[in-house]
Amino acid sequence: MIVCVCHRVSDRDIEREVRHGCASFDELQDELRVATACGACTDCARETFDTARACRPAAHAAHPVHVPHPVPAAAPRGRVFALVPVGVTPLAA
User: Of the candidates 40, 6, 34, 5, which has an alpha carbon nearest to the alpha carbon of residue 18?
Assistant: First the structure.
């Protein structure tokens, strides 16, 4: 459902922001600009935000923490061999 007609913000947009760690209604307004134009949607937007926050587990309520993926180890150093098809003479280096 469209919550904010002025900025075309839906309830799904608000729920997505909450899932991604939006912690306050002010932050939501900064991100989506919801309820910042005519103000007619303020109550509905705030209610949608509060409902989405209430449905979110408390363990995930804070901003998500970025955990970097491990960097693969470098290839072992040693001799490098080129694969050359049978019958083809390799180019001299």
Answer: 34
Domains of the chain with bracketed CATH: 2-60 (1.10.10.1100)
**Amino acid type, 54:** A
Radius of gyration of the CA atoms of the chain, in A: 26
- Checking if the pLDDT of 53 tops 60, the result is yes
| Unique residue bearing structure tokens 């209610």 | 47
Q: Which two tokens stand for residue 92?
A: 């001299």
Please name the helix (run of DSSP H) or strand (run of DSSP E) that holds residue 4, with its range, or none: strand 2-4
Average pLDDT, the chain: 80
